[in-house]
Amino acid sequence: MPRKTLTIKSKVESLSILDEKGNLDADLDPKLSTQKSLELYRLMLLARRLDERCINLQRQGRIGTYGPCRGQEAAHCASGILMTPEDWVVYAFREPGTAIFRGWPIEHSMYFWGGFEEGCRPPEGVNDLPMCVPIASQVPHGMGLAWAMKLRGDPHCVLTYLGDGATSEGDFHEAMNFAGVYKLPCIFLVQNNHWAISIPVANQTASQTIAHKAVAYGFNGIQVDGNDPLAVYVATKEAADKARKGGGPTLIEAVTYRMSVHTTADDPTKYRSDDEVKAWEKRDPIVRFAKYLKKRRILSEDLEQKIENEIQTEVRAAVERYETYCKSVDPSIVFDYMYADPAPEIVRQREEYRACLVREGVLKT
Q1: Helix/strand/coil percentages in the chain, nearest 5
Q2: Which of 182, 181, 177, 193 has its CA nearest to residue 147?
Q3: Which of 126, 138, 187, 130 is nearest to 158 (CA)?
Q4: Active site residue 258
Q5: Residues 94, 108, 258, 283: which is the catalytic one?
């Protein structure tokens, strides 16, 4: 028997269209309309400003632990805007822009991180699953939705977000294998932000890329510059078009960077250098896209300020709605959903807690 190199049908590509200086590869330009370009820019900026406000709210004790998305706006916004109402989106927890685009009110993110179960309830008629913090546990859910689509003959697709750390979990590999075997209409979008909390991607996998993990499961992978919204858009559009036509799954690796903390319970200075962060700040996806839009004369200084002012107003209004809701909720309801028939000690604890809330002025009676 001779030794020979096997021919692998699946392929892995790399894609970058817009560099950090706003220069464009014209041959790869998706030629977004003025309206679509401004919609994407506005969504990315809204995600950034909401992110900044949520960090401030957490530091002030007005929401709980929060997971920022700073630096990853292109990776999720430029993919999310391609999903139709009939498609499904399955979140990790750094995709507020996509959620807003899909119809989630801005304050829903605050509900989630504030500990309210309402933050886990998608708006009526929106084909989304809630945010999912447990690593990779959402990936089989996305695969399952895609399987249901195929069984029903629905010509739609599922976009599932995950991080680089999730690719070390069994849930990821089981979902990839099933999707490959049954050629399911799903997109696995890995936001490779280089750090799984404090574990660098080099210690996460020996693979040259995350994208080519798709080859082992019989479908294509593509690595894109995750801070390039045009590259993310093109790769996602191709993957979605293929999935809706019955062509099976795609793995997209969006190479980006977590410019903020893992969560507000994290101190990244313990495991990464300021020089590394500063180098990636020069590749900021929002700054990059703004340069490109200004070169195209789509975004002027006046329009940029107008969009900024509108977003600040929207975020402030969302905070007000969230905090108005907080004041309307009796915190002692946490005891109400544990047991159908609470034990005497639970009843006693609930009454002690309510008495404390009254003393502190949180409840009137």
Answers
A1: 50, 10, 40
A2: 182
A3: 187
A4: yes
A5: 258
**What is the Cα–Cα distance from 259 to 189, expressed in whole angstroms?**
19
Residue 296 appears among annotated catalytic residues: no
Catalytic residue among 53, 76, 156, 262: 262
- Token pair, residue 148, equals 């249901």
pLDDT number for residue 105: 97
* Distance, CA of 328 to CA of 67 (rounded, Å): 25
Cβ proximity of 18 and 281 under 8 Å? no
Q: What is the pLDDT of residue 363?
A: 84
Q: Decide if 173 is catalytic.
A: no
Q: 153: Cβ–Cβ under 8 A, 6 or more apart, which residues?
A: none
Q: How far apart are CA 99 and CA 131, in angstroms?
A: 9
Band (pLDDT 50/70/90 cuts) for residue 332 is: confident
Report the top-level CATH class of 12-328.
alpha beta
- Annotated domain spans of the chain: 12-328, 331-365
State the catalytic residue, choosing from 59, 121, 271, 339.
Answer: 271
The answer on pLDDT for 1 being more than 80 is: no
Paired strand residues for 128: 89
Run of H or E including 14: strand 12-15
Reference 109, options 254, 257, 327, 98; nearest CA is 98
Backbone φ and ψ for 170, nearest 5 degrees, come out as: -60, -35
